[in-house]
Amino acid sequence: MKIRNHKTLVIGYSLLAGLLFLACPAWSWTSGEASKFQEAGKEYRAGHFDKAISLYQELLKEHPREAVFLYNLGNSYFRKGKLGEAILAYERARFYEPRDKDIEFNLNYTHGLLEYRVEDKRNWYIRAGEEVLKKFTEEEVDLLGLVSYFLFVSGWLFCLFFRQRMPWGWKRKTLLLISVVFLLLSIAKDVEVRVMRDAIVMTKEAEVRYGPSESDQIAFRVGEGIKVYVVDHREDWSRVILVNGEGGWMRNRYLAEVRV
Question: How far does CA 176 lie from the centroid of its chain?
Fold first, then answer.
């Protein structure tokens, strides 16, 4: 696992009919934070992983969306053998920098080391749709929809005021189609982020029950590092669904949601 020492975040935006990728700077760091970041890297390379974890956590208190901190935190947890914490950190890093190949590689590699596996029984188009959505941040999808809608409305207004008898040509139809597609993507992303929220099991073995109480029967157990989807909350319980279709209620203390 390699440590990151850069502050660049690549974000894709849509301008006109295509996608342009603009290099956007990461959060502005103070000199003290930059020094702490360098110190954390030195501690990691020296094998002092607990110290590195502590420093990265301090940095994340001020910059919780900084993918490079999350990525390096995941590496530090991985070196400690804490796979659940590592996967959570990688998932959070991917949430803010979804097209980073290093994050994707480390996440997949760590998943491969888990003892507990869950077979994905969802339809292929649902899995494919999820993979597409995870390649873009929520802000990017919203901007894509907004820009395409703006272009369509602008074209429509132009024709209305200046060329009222102009028939619907392929250009206007294409813009309308793109607008509809990006609108649907925006809705799907909103569902992914807010309705079926990604969470990671953080305990060695968590009990999933048929209801939100200790008196309810145990439906099944799930192991550390497994991703679940949180769809409901009730006091200190969360209703979760797995990719194999199984679901139930789990104590909140067993879980950590990816989006913070």
Answer: 29
What pTM did the predictor assign?
A: 0.79
- Domain containing 161 equals 124-195
- 16 DSSP 8-state letter: T
**Is residue 178 located within the same domain as residue 212?**
no
- Residue 31: per-residue pLDDT: 87
Residues 17 and 89 in one domain: yes
Angle CA(32)–CA(258)–CA(101) in degrees, nearest 5?
A: 75
By C-alpha distance, which of 247, 246, 204 is closest to 225? 204
Nearest to 250 by CA among 16, 105, 224: 224
| Average pLDDT estimate for 184-213 | 87
How far apart are the C-alpha atoms of 254 and 234, rounded to whole Å?
A: 14
DSSP string, 99-144: T-HHHHHHHHHHHTT-S------S-HHHHHHHHHHTTS-HHHHHHH
Tell whether 153 is covered by a domain: yes
pLDDT by residue (tens digit) across 163-175? 555 556 676 677 6
Query: Which phi-psi region, left, alpha or beta, contains residue 227 (left: φ > 0; alpha: ψ -120 to 50)?
Result: beta
Q: Which two tokens stand for residue 77?
A: 């947890």
The continuous run of DSSP H or E covering 200 comes out as strand 197-201
Q: Are residues 187 and 246 in the same domain?
A: no
Predicted pLDDT of residue 110? 97
